[in-house]
């Protein structure tokens, strides 16, 4: 290596020697360079589309049909919600009294909105639904469960999402959630839209459709604590319903539910967080407490999820009353940070709200 380097340096010196005849050949191989002034040319580019114009071309307003409603200003920004995870027995009178006491406890702890579980006045079984069903429209003695909810909501001046009870309407049975305002009046009635018909071999088989009829109407209601979309248990699996509620301006989705020991550990929290994250709103759920000796064993774990998909409050499977704060001002913060509504591709897909479109 050393000899090769030395040889290279020696040859360079010889070539650079002006007395060397070979150096005269440089003019043949190296043309003379002349310095000329550099002319600057301006490159004209087509104007770049702004982000807003690009978003406009994506037609985000057309991703919802009819167009999504703006988020309404809520009657209040902050309030406490109470989730009453209750034990349920075969004694209907006891169940009604027990639910009443739980609502009163939640209100005494500052809850302005109270959520009850799915089927809180009856065992969860196809055999029980016809026996425990009530005529909600008739009220009074024909519906002692809703009569209690009306009385308590008015006396305590709170809003109650009354979980669900079996409802008898003519010759049909429904799984129905009643919403009572702080004046004791029935604000809305949601009949479970998606019936719980599943068959997981070796795990669980249940067919609500053997006794129950599916509801036909999404339910969103304006209350003293904001605009609330209602679903019951299995309804939470269908993101389209939650998307419709969000497009109608919901602040909060409430799902009384009784997931089981097979799907509960896998899907209960996952689905709540998904519905909250996708739609950038609050999601609250309320389950019955677990009774391992019952024919149907509930998973429990009633939960409040925030608009970023964060679990704000939850519990295990025993009886419990969860009190947690809802702050609607966070909704706009999250939607500003992640402006999904302005980024939807209405040029590629649409969600049609059939009820609004036909009204």
From TrEMBL:
It comes from Eutrema salsugineum. PANTHER family: NITRILASE-RELATED (PTHR23088), OMEGA-AMIDASE NIT2 (PTHR23088:SF30). This is CN hydrolase domain-containing protein. Keywords: Hydrolase. GO terms for cellular component: mitochondrion. GO terms for molecular function: omega-amidase activity. One of its GO terms (biological process) is glutamine metabolic process. It comes from the Eukaryota. Residues 79-328 form the CN hydrolase domain. InterPro entries: C-N_Hydrolase (IPR003010), C-N_Hydrolase_sf (IPR036526), Nit1/2_C-N_Hydrolase (IPR045254). Pfam families: CN_hydrolase.
């Amino acid at each position: 290596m050393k000899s090769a380097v030395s040889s290279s340096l020696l040859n360079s010196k010889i070539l650079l020697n002006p007395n060397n005849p070979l150096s005269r050949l440089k003019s043949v191989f190296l043309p003379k360079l002349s310095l000329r002034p550099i002319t600057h040319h301006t490159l004209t580019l087509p104007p770049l589309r702004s982000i807003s114009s690009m978003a406009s071309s994506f037609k985000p307003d057309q991703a919802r049909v009819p167009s999504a409603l703006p988020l309404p200003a809520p009657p209040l920004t902050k309030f406490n919600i109470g989730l009453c995870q209750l034990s349920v027995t075969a004694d209907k009178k006891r169940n009604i009294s027990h639910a009443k006491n739980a609502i009163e406890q939640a209100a005494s702890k500052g809850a302005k909105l109270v959520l009850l579980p799915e089927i809180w006045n009856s065992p969860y079984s196809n055999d029980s639904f016809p026996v425990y069903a009530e005529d909600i429209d008739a009220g009074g003695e024909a519906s002692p469960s809703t009569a209690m909810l009306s009385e308590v909501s008015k006396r305590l001046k709170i809003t109650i999402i009354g979980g669900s009870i079996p409802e008898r309407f003519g010759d049909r049975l429904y799984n129905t959630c009643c919403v009572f305002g702080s004046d004791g009046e029935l604000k809305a009635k949601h009949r479970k839209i998606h019936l719980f018909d599943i068959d997981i071999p070796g795990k669980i088989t249940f067919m609500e459709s053997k006794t129950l009829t599916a509801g036909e109407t999404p339910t969103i209601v304006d209350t003293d604590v904001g605009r609330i979309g209602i679903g019951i248990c299995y309804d939470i699996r269908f993101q389209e319903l939650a998307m419709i509620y969000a497009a109608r301006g919901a602040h909060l989705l409430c799902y009384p539910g009784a997931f089981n020991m097979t799907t509960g550990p896998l899907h209960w929290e996952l689905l709540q967080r998904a519905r909250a994250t996708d739609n950038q709103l609050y999601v609250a759920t309320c389950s019955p407490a677990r009774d391992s000796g019952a024919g149907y064993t509930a998973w429990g774990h009633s939960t409040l999820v925030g608009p970023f998909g964060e679990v704000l409050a939850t519990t295990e499977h025993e009886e419990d009353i969860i009190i947690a704060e809802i702050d609607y001002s966070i909704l706009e913060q999250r939607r500003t940070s992640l402006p999904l509504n302005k980024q939807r591709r209405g040029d590629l897909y649409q969600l049609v709200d059939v009820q609004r479109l036909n009204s």
